[in-house]
Each structure stands twice: as structure tokens, then as C-alpha cells.
Design a protein that fits this description.
Thrombin, subunit H, Pdz3 Domain, 7-stranded antiparallel sheet
Length: about 475
């Protein structure tokens, strides 16, 4: 090789070194596949985005001794031709005023139809009387039972109040168990949720403000209601659960459920150690509430319920508990049903009569003259707080330097008596409070059950009452 030829060697070698780094050209099939997915996403977007609304609630929150007005933001999806919007309870379930921003950016007022804190769902209705925007569109509710891991999904909503956004991902799990939770915003840990459904887990981003927005499949059908997110994971309430709840909220103003007083547990670990092959299916009774239908019927912790009203109750794993809890809840209230259970490897049959699960959380009241906020005690709250009954009212906070604070009324103390009058419920408490407020006594004696269960007599010194107003803001 001559000198002239050697000049080209470095260039050739450099080219050879760079060849492995070159980006391969996508095949026509790959491009077509990607474009097909993109077209499907656009189709789904166009089917549901016009039905998306940003929800702006103004709620009344009772805590710390004062009633406060709290503003927030969330999302919702129009799902009827009448303008009903499905959203989360923690977005709009306690709203006193509502404004919805439509997909065309027009603002319309809305009213709360009803909410269900047990499933964190609520229905509101748009007031379209002065709406001058586009023709109303409503979304198609799909079938969440048909979802499979790996299915493409799109989450629509208003994260951080940014309207009309969408994120894309796949279904990570179709039946994620998050356990029974009591972390609904504004409920002070007094409301359990998540005991009647598992969750759809997705990797599409769900941020604050996405709550209440639709999770949709590539057919443009709503398959879930977005509710939780963080750390790259999102969780949605299956639409098959939400559809049933929404229907009852619209038709009846609430969701009534049966209750038997049993805490279910998965059977797997217990079966291996104690039951063996004697139980062919069934669900373990982990706890029985005192004076509940189950206890009165003779059900005991450690029993394995095999059938409930002739329906099998197979829950070897935790995810299988939720359909059983939902089945019991859907049973007619007051119905006498047969249960077959396994006790010490012997089958036992017994009858029990279901009761009404009742209201989830009680109404609130502000005692402005005392610097105190209180809440009615529901049967559910009494069970959660391990109270003997649900008489009296629950203190939810006292204003700094108020008569209530100086008397050392603590958060979650139960006020049982006021000025010698035994308090039955919130209505009775309000009546007694308003009577005393008119009489303007200098001191009022309260009988209180402290959080440790001990009774105390506390004295309200009303000679120097102190009050103030407050406002707070919060994103949903």
C-alpha cells in the first residue's frame, strides 16, 4: 500500500468504530404498530376528554374548635345525559359549593347529590341552565372485570389544578389490596374506606388533583375512578364498584349496606397450621364485634365460614376477602340467612339476621361560645373508637385560649353530660348547648370520657370567651 492509500486508513477505522453506535432504523412494522397505538390513544382521548371536568369545591371543615371554609380542587367525569358527575368523596363529599370547569373552559355551578365515604365516591350534578358551551357529552362506563395486567390505560384529570391533562401507562395489577384505611382527608381518621373493593394499580401518573378523574381503556371506556397516587404508582376504584355506588347515590341519596359484625381474614396461613384439609375453601373469622348479629348467632373468632346465604365464601388470600365483604353488604338488611362454618374440623349451621351498617361518619357542630367543635357519634365510629355505645358527642378540637381549651377537653374525648343532662346524640347536644347559651351561665360542668376510657368532670369557665375566624386552602 502506497503513501497515498495510507491517508484513508484513519478515516475508515473511525467509521468502523462509530458504526455500532448508529441508531437502528425502525422497521415498517414497528412504525405501523406505534402509530396504531397512538391512534387508539387519540380515539380514547377524544371519546372521554370532552366529559372531563375540574371540580372546585368549597367545603366546611370542623376541627380545632372552629368551622372553617376550605377550598380545593379535583377531577370528575360526566357519565349521564342529565349532567351527573362521578368523583371522589374526598374531593366533593362535604362540599357546600361547587364550581366545575368544563372541557371547553366554561365554568358551571354544581350541587352535591350524595357521597359514600366507605368507597370514597361521590356524585355531583352540573347546573346547565346558563351553560353556553359545547353540547354536553357523557362517558361510557366500561367493564373493569375485563382488565388484564399489561393493558394500556389513560388517566385523565387536573393534577395540581392543571386542567385537561392525560397520562399514559399500563395496568400493573388488577386487584391490589391496600387494606382497610382511615386516611380520607377531612375525616380525622374516623372513617374507614377500602373494605369493599380492591384497586386497579397503574403506572400512569396520578397526582393530587387527579382524584376523581377517569381511568380509561383504549376503547374510550371508563374502567376506573382515579383516587390515589405517588412513587410512580396510581390506584383507581374499579368502575364496576363505582357504577353500583353511583346508581344508589342518585336513586336513594345513600348506599345502604348490611352488617354482621365479622372481620374476615384470609385462610391460607391459618389453614396450614390449624385446619388442614378439613376446610375446602372458606374464609376465616378473625374477630367478632360484641353484641353484633354474628356474636348473637354464636359465631366465634377462629371459625371458618364456608357459605353465607348459600353462597360460597372462599378467601384463601387477602384479595379474595373484598368480594365476600361486598356480597354480605349487598344482602337485604334485616334478612335472616344461614351460614355454614367449620369449627374444630366439624361443620356447624346457624342462622343470623343482618343489620344496617349505618351512617359512616357523624355530622359536625361548632360551639362558638365555647371554642369547641364536636361530631355526632355513629355506630361505626363507636366501633372504631371501642366505645360501649354511641351516645354523647365526640370532641374534635378546641380553639386556643378558649373555655374548652382551658378546661382541657381533648380531641376525641366523648362529652356524655352537659350541666347534668345526659346527652343522647348531636341533636340533643345542640338543643342543650343553645339553651345554655341563652341563659349565659358563668360556668358549665361537663362529664367527659377521656380517650383512655376514664370519666372526668370538667368545668367550662365562660366568663372570658374568645373566638376568631379562620380560612384554609387545600388541594384534593
Amino acid at each position: 500500500m502506497g503513501d497515498t492509500d495510507m491517508r484513508f486508513v484513519p478515516g475508515v477505522m473511525l467509521l468502523l468504530l462509530l458504526l455500532p453506535l448508529a441508531t437502528p432504523v425502525a422497521s415498517a412494522e414497528d412504525v405501523d404498530g406505534a402509530l396504531a397505538i397512538q391512534d387508539a390513544v387519540r380515539h380514547a382521548r377524544d371519546a372521554v376528554l370532552p366529559c372531563l371536568v375540574r371540580v372546585q369545591p368549597i367545603s366546611e371543615v370542623y376541627s380545632g374548635g372552629r368551622k372553617r371554609r376550605r377550598t380545593g380542587f379535583g377531577s370528575g367525569v360526566i357519565f349521564t345525559h342529565e349532567g351527573h358527575v362521578l368523583t371522589n368523596y374526598h374531593v366533593a363529599g362535604r362540599a357546600k359549593n361547587l364550581i366545575c370547569v368544563m372541557a371547553d373552559k366554561e365554568e358551571v355551578p354544581a350541587t352535591l347529590i350524595a357521597g359514600d365515604p366507605w368507597t370514597d365516591l361521590a356524585v355531583i350534578k352540573l347546573d346547565l341552565s346558563s351553560y353556553k358551551g359545547h353540547a354536553l357529552q357523557w362517558a361510557v362506563l366500561g367493564n373493569s372485570d375485563g382488565l388484564e395486567v399489561g393493558d394500556f390505560v389513560v388517566a385523565l384529570g387536573s393534577p395540581f389544578a392543571l386542567t385537561r391533562t392525560m397520562t399514559f401507562g399500563v395496568v400493573s395489577c388488577t386487584d391490589r389490596s391496600l387494606g382497610v384505611r382511615n386516611d380520607l382527608p377531612g375525616e380525622m381518621g374516623l372513617q374507614e374506606t377500602g373494605q369493599f373493593n380492591t384497586w386497579i394499580q397503574v403506572d400512569a401518573l396520578i397526582n393530587p388533583g387527579n382524584s376523581g378523574g377517569p381511568l380509561i381503556n383504549l376503547q374510550g371506556e371508563v374502567v376506573g375512578i382515579n383516587a390515589r397516587g405517588g412513587a410512580g404508582m396510581g390506584f383507581a376504584i374499579p368502575i364496576n364498584v363505582a357504577r353500583d355506588v353511583a346508581r344508589e347515590l342518585i336513586e336513594n341519596g345513600s348506599v345502604r349496606r348490611s352488617w354482621i359484625g365479622v372481620k374476615f381474614q384470609a385462610l391460607a396461613k391459618f389453614q396450614e397450621r390449624f385446619v388442614g384439609d378439613a376446610a375446602d375453601g372458606g374464609v376465616l373469622v378473625g374477630n367478632v364485634v360484641a353484641d353484633s348479629p354474628a356474636e348473637r348467632a354464636g359465631v366465634r373468632p377462629g371459625d371458618v365460614i364456608l357459605t353465607f346465604d348459600k353462597n360460597s365464601t372462599d378467601a384463601r388470600f387477602e384479595e379474595q376477602i373484598y368480594p365476600i365483604a361486598r356480597m354480605v353488604a349487598k344482602t337485604e338488611i334485616g334478612k335472616t340467612v344461614e351460614i355454614v362454618l367449620l369449627r374444630r374440623k366439624k361443620r356447624v349451621s346457624m342462622l343470623l339476621t343482618t343489620e344496617d351498617l349505618g351512617q359512616a361518619v357523624g355530622d359536625d357542630f361548632e360551639c362558638e361560645a365555647w371554642g369547641l367543635t364536636v361530631k355526632d357519634i355513629t355506630a361505626s365510629m363507636a366501633r372504631m373508637l371501642a366505645l360501649d355505645d354511641h351516645e354523647g358527642v365526640l370532641a374534635t378540637g378546641s380553639l386556643s385560649d378558649s373555655a374548652a381549651a382551658k378546661a382541657k377537653i381533648g380531641n376525641r374525648d366523648v362529652i356524655q353530660e352537659v350541666a347534668g343532662t345526659r346527652i343522647k346524640d348531636l341533636a340533643h347536644f345542640k338543643e342543650t348547648y343553645e339553651k345554655l347559651t341563652k341563659e349565659m351561665p358563668r360556668k358549665v360542668v361537663l362529664k367527659v370520657r377521656k380517650t383512655d376510657g376514664t370519666p372526668r368532670l370538667l368545668v367550662l369557665d365562660l366568663s372570658k370567651a374568645k373566638t376568631s375566624d379562620a380560612e384554609e386552602g387545600n388541594g384534593k
